[in-house]
Design brief:
The structure is a homodimer. With about 240 residues, chain A is of the alpha+beta class. Chain A has two domains: about 70 residues, Orthogonal Bundle (Arc Repressor Mutant, subunit A), CATH 1.10.10.10; about 140 residues, Chorismate lyase-like (Chorismate lyase), CATH 3.40.1410.10. Chain A is built from eight helices and ten strands. In chain A, the strands form two sheets. The first copy, chain A, has a six-stranded antiparallel β-sheet. In chain A, β8 and β9 form a beta hairpin. Chain A is elongated and about 65 Å long. The termini of chain A are far apart. Chains A and B meet through β3, β7, β8 and β10 of A and β3, β7, β8 and β10 of B. The structure holds a DNA duplex (30 and 30 nucleotides). Chains A, B: It holds the Pfam family GntR.
DNA sequence: ATGTTTATTATGTCTACACATAAGGAGTCG
DNA sequence: CGACTCCTTATGTGTAGACATAATAAACAT
């Protein structure tokens, strides 16, 4: 026999941790491992699947990060009673969100002021008295139709550069992302009644329900920026899993 | 010298991947690795930190899962331009959400009907003609005050048990969680104008903006349940990181 | 019975090593 | 110049083995 025979070992059939994950999820969702049941130990499973314990550990860990499993030392691995308790939302830049749908993106600066922070803002951003802020109103269009109204406040003390920047060409979002280092963020979603600005720019009727997201950004305990994004009528923020 | 001296090796100083992660994040947020910069390779970093490449890989992988880094084969590891593009929301059961604030939880069934699915619902849940559904209206109270209105539809064909269940004592949410296996889920957030139900039960004025979350649940390609949760005035869904 | 220590055990993580794979870049050829 | 191949390189993932740690269960003492 020629020694080429040894090449038979092609398609090495190495079971990857992803395959193991898939099989585990299968067994949980459609198979024998119902909610609350206790899984065999890692060693036993590793043996059954023909993988090393390292790999099995990784698979189980990732499945548990998906929210399916609950793992405790000594106690073992258990299928969670309540399926998944977390929702992940991708929050791309508006530009990316619009361009992904195939629509043309356009940005427009509506107004720009450098003023003393009003009281409510001082409290919200924990600014000191007489703090100056840059106030911007911007519009984001998808194929010429207003898609999102951006109402942004920037702490001038924390970011003096912002007072010199005119945001007519490049949106504050993209500018900030390129300028400010990573920071602490607080995001909220809420429903608001359409105010004058939204009526004027987004085409709502006064008092219409508007889906808004608010984002406050901090860096080293100093507020950097606070922005409210008002979305067009009927906007939904959706995620699937 | 007594041989107890050897015990000096206590506190073995093993650098864990968590410590490495912390240091990496530090260098990104406050240190030399600004947005867009390219990190040294795993091997080099591993050497610098005095850990194995496996550990360094894990650290880098997890930091990148947090949204800080972008990793590509051959291209290397790069600091993301846009800090964090995803928001994670914990979505506990209402009961847990209310009890966490220290308030007393109370559940009340408002109405319960078994009917033919209306057209919009048939389309939304992809039910066939003449499909029967259970329609529930439920209220969740925090300290006696209406907190959330639950408008739920259950596919009677996929879940015949639901037609026999009277949901006067236990909420459909908790019942479903205990009954239905893990499933595919689609969650949306949206702003709605208060309708008659919300006015009657949540104390909104007609047309008020209401923050709603809608959740559609599937199991093996069959719709199980569709629920809309309307929140009380001023409700915000918030996350921080 | 109750509180405390001790042993056991399943998961958590580290190491060293090897091979797989994607993708940038150089070189080649038309 | 463009399209192709091939090489190189950084990350991706697998293995075996060892020790760490948390948490239960058993043994013990009060």
């Amino acid at each position: 026999m020629p020694d080429t025979v040894r090449i038979e070992t092609a398609k090495a059939e190495t079971t990857t941790f992803r395959e193991v994950m898939a099989e585990i999820i299968q067994r949980i969702t459609e198979g024998p491992w119902g909610p609350g049941s206790l899984l065999p130990g890692e060693v036993e499973l590793a043996e059954e699947f023909g993988v090393s314990r390292t790999t099995m550990n990784r698979a189980l860990r990732e499945v548990s990060e998906l929210g399916f499993l609950d793992r405790k030392r000594k106690a073992g691995t258990r299928v969670r009673m309540a399926p998944i308790r977390q929702a992940r939302f991708e929050m791309p830049l508006v530009r990316a969100e619009i361009e992904k749908t195939g629509a043309a993106y356009r940005y427009q600066l509506v107004s720009r002021d450098v003023i003393l922070a009003p009281d409510w803002l001082r409290e919200r951003m924990r600014l000191k008295a007489r703090a100056r802020v840059v106030h911007l109103l911007c519009l984001h269009f998808a194929d010429g139709v207003a898609f999102q109204l951006e109402d942004r406040w920037i702490n001038a003390q924390a970011l003096p550069l912002a007072t010199e920047q005119d945001f007519s060409a490049v949106g504050p979002n993209e500018w900030l992302v390129a300028t400010v280092p990573f920071s602490e963020v607080e995001i909220s979603f809420l429903a608001q009644a359409a105010d004058a600005q939204m009526v004027a720019h987004l085409g709502h009727a006064p008092g219409d329900p508007v889906f808004c997201s608010e984002r406050a950004t901090w860096w080293q305990n100093a507020a950097v920026t606070l922005v409210t994004l008002a979305h067009r009528r009927g906007y939904r923020m959706t995620t699937r899993y």
